[in-house]
Amino acid sequence: MPKVGMEPVRRKALVDATLKAVGDHGSLAVTMSEIARHAGVSPALAHHYFGSKEQLLIATIRSLLQQLRADVVKAIQSVQAPREKLSAIIRVSFHSDQFRPETIAAWLAFYADAQRSEETRRLLVLYARRLRSNLVANLKRLCPADDAVRIAEGAAAMIDGLYIRQSLRSAPISIDSSIALTEDYLTAHLRPFMAPGARA
Amino acid sequence: MPKVGMEPVRRKALVDATLKAVGDHGSLAVTMSEIARHAGVSPALAHHYFGSKEQLLIATIRSLLQQLRADVVKAIQSVQAPREKLSAIIRVSFHSDQFRPETIAAWLAFYADAQRSEETRRLLVLYARRLRSNLVANLKRLCPADDAVRIAEGAAAMIDGLYIRQSLRSAPISIDSSIALTEDYLTAHLRPFMAPGARA
DNA sequence: TTTTGTTGATTGGCCGATCAATTAAAATTA
DNA sequence: TAATTTTAATTGATCGGCCAATCAACAAAA
């Protein structure tokens, strides 16, 4: 069986399996065996490539964040006007891939883990900073810097909040509603700075 | 040592110890030994009174929620006008007790656990519903029902979002700023329904 | 002497990690 | 090209440790 060049294939399979297992299980308390089974390999192989469970988890978060980042960059570049870029950021945050129950569960599990693992925390802080800075950068073209920071803070909180509320599946808000709520927030708070004639 | 009437004392001590342990540890993966040590009793006693770790955790969440609920009720009753009641709800949500790092960590851990435990989920859904219904009830006196629901959804999301962002301690927002952001949200979205002369 | 509170000791199970062993492809040498 | 050595991939078996849960035993109040 030993076919050369399997490392990247296995690594990806294991990371994907981890995301799925964590998502299904709704917790980082998944066993290496379970992950390995999902990936169709032995537990020993997971250790071989990642050294430890901790490292495999870190790699999984990193992968999740990279995917999200790529989507954001792409979305931002696809439009020109600042206000449209803001909408693009919002849209990506609630993109269907992100909204899958397992993905949401995984995010939540990682957030909780950030209390424990410094590395996990670092990565999530990075995500938060990027979201914030993307929002601020575009808001600054629409309103004074002070207000931009404040509004960005609020929008970021709203995005995260809508997200976490999905995890409870209590009053399941649709993707569209989530986007609409966040858009409304921006619109309402940008209104004071709009040219008098340009009311929507 | 055996003095009669210890049961309620021990139960409370164990629940408090659990909250502290979970908060410190930032995860529900705390051992019964650790909890028992915090409470100054043996692990066996914790099992004696709660039957299982799961039950002890449930009792801890219930306690957290009861405390929060009591605070909310009290705050709501202390003022009259709907708009003031809304402010009171917000203030309680960011009340200093709730904002303690350990409390935030505990909340987060429980949210994550809701993916796993149906009972945990039930309790958190209950919290979400209460928050929502409190907001909606008061908003309905200030704007049409449809808008009330929408604005409540947004405000609840914002509260949860600001909360979860605290857990990362990245750009630590102060309690006052969190309250201000949420207040701003309400104010901005209620503005269209206010009497023309009554602009703040 | 019954009830209540309490613990130490123990057990059974699970899981992360390690390691030696195996297989087959690739590289090297003859 | 055939023979060999090296390297990469992979796993089964196993170990050590931790932890939830159990239980028998004991102490003191009722």
UniProtKB/TrEMBL annotation, chains A, B:
InterPro entries: BetI_C (IPR039538), DNA-bd_HTH_TetR-type_CS (IPR023772), Homeodomain-like_sf (IPR009057), HTH-type_TetR-like_transc_reg (IPR050109), HTH_TetR (IPR001647), Tet_transcr_reg_TetR-rel_C_sf (IPR036271), Tscrpt_rep_BetI (IPR017757)
One Pfam assignment: TetR_C_6
Residue ranges the UniProt entry marks as DNA-binding: 31-50
Protein's name according to its UniProt entry: HTH-type transcriptional regulator BetI
Organism: Mycoplana ramosa
UniProt cross-references to PROSITE patterns, sorted A to Z: HTH_TETR_1 (PS01081), HTH_TETR_2 (PS50977)
PANTHER family, per the entry: HTH-TYPE TRANSCRIPTIONAL DUAL REGULATOR CECR, HTH-TYPE TRANSCRIPTIONAL REGULATOR RUTR
Record keywords, A-Z: DNA-binding, Repressor, Transcription, Transcription regulation
Pathway stated in the Swiss-Prot or TrEMBL entry: Amine and polyamine biosynthesis; betaine biosynthesis via choline pathway [regulation]
Source species, domain of life: Bacteria
Reported function: Repressor involved in choline regulation of the bet genes.
Domain HTH tetR-type: 8-68
